[in-house]
From TrEMBL:
Sequence ranges assigned to domain CBS in this UniProt record: 65-126
Protein name as annotated: Acetoin utilization protein acuB
SUPFAM superfamilies for this protein: CBS-domain pair (SSF54631)
Keywords: CBS domain
Record carries keyword Phosphoprotein: no
Amino acid sequence: MNMNDYLLDQIKPLRLKDTVKSAQKVLRNNHITHFPIIENNKLLGSFAEDDIQTIENNNEELVEHAHLLNSFFADEKATLLELLKIFADNDTNIIPVLNEAKDYIGYFDLRDVLDVFSTSPFMVEESETLIIEKLRNDYSMSQVVQIIEASGGQLLGLYISEKNLDNVQVTIKVISEEINEIMQTFRRYDYKIISMHENDIYLEDLKSRSEYLQKYLDM
């Protein structure tokens, strides 16, 4: 997917000689969390709305507050997941974009990137979502893929959704008519199924055994 199709240039970057008042106007009119500052088509950084709105003397030039510049950007060849990470890491809804020569060429808007992600096969294909857990040192992505494919499933995608010193949790999107078979195989390989699924044979069996034991104890 070519993310350059979503490259924007409607919001013009400012320069350090511009005033705080002009920056506040840009923020007010465009509802953005940051705006880029360039000189000679080179990105110097981005000012955050929270910082600019707290400056009392809005007739000052932005250069007086250059120490507040945030340094983040995306390469023009950045992937969708790379962009999502930049958005999240910098708590922003706009990312400046640079070309191979490190020239500023525009920006990505968070809404556009989320729209692309929400319409990707990973999100829209009818599928099952599994969340599995494994000891961190024992986790193997290749093993996860092998288990799914050997059980007749089709993997749409996966990502590590939680990680600590001991365990790792992986969220998986899979197309399968035999999701129970996949879950049982994961359990045989000492994976814990975190997500809840209707008609989970393993859980139904545990429930039946628990009910039988309770009846026995009540006798």
